[in-house]
Amino acid sequence: MGELRLAVVGDELAAGVGDPKGLGWVGRVVARTPTPDPLTALTLAVPGETTSGLGARWEDEVGRRLSADADNRLVVALGRADVDAGLSLARSRLNLANILDVAEQRRIPAFVVGPPPGSTADAEKLADLSAAFADVATRRRVPYVDTFTPLAAHDQWLGDLAAGNGVLPGQAGYGLIAWLVLHTGWHAWLGLPDDAA
Questions:
Q1: pLDDT at 196
Q2: Fewer CB within 10 A of the end CB, N or C, for the chain?
Q3: C-alpha 64: how far from chain center
């Protein structure tokens, strides 16, 4: 199989900001992904980044980290900044579509993790955004993890947000995102047996 190299692009949620253990969901997922050969996960995060910003930078940054000798993969970890910035759903959809289309052209398999719930005031907009992202990924046959729907009314998620600054999860919240990723086609996408979960 050779080295498995994951480039994870996203915002502060991809970097695990707010997690006292410093693992975030990416660290937890990597720790639960046994591979026969080394797994390298490179998190390329920009706090508060919209899909427009991500679209402008990801290809150059990821390209520097790919290796001809590795099984290179792209994890697109989408945050909530598009809602805060007032981007239209059409713009957000197009931005993600462009990222996934370029990844496909470069033969980099992609996996998309959608935005989790945040402020209750933004709940409807975030639900719409998550659904739009899911549609874009599904049309391109790219795995999509909906973190919004299962966590929107999840007591542990809401309690974790409330215990912090109301925006970033802590250990429990990142653990919940990791669980969703691990149980939504992660191992199959990597070509690993499902019982590895």
A1: 45
A2: N
A3: 20
Task: State how far the Cα of 166 lies from the Cα of 9, in Å rounded to an integer.
Answer: 23
Strand partners, 6: 41, 73
**E runs forming strands in 46-196:** 71-77, 110-113, 144-145
Q: How far is CA 164 from CA 15, 152, 189, in A?
A: 16, 17, 33
Q: Alpha-carbon distance 197 to 193, whole Å?
A: 8
Q: Is 131 exposed, middle or buried (0-12, 13-18, 19+ CB in 10 A)?
A: middle
Contact present, 85 and 110 (Cβ < 8 Å):
no
pTM above 0.90, yes or no: yes
For residue 166, count CB atoms less than 10 angstroms from its CB and return exposed for 0-12, middle for 13-18, buried for 19 or more: exposed
Does the pLDDT of residue 52 top 60, yes or no? yes
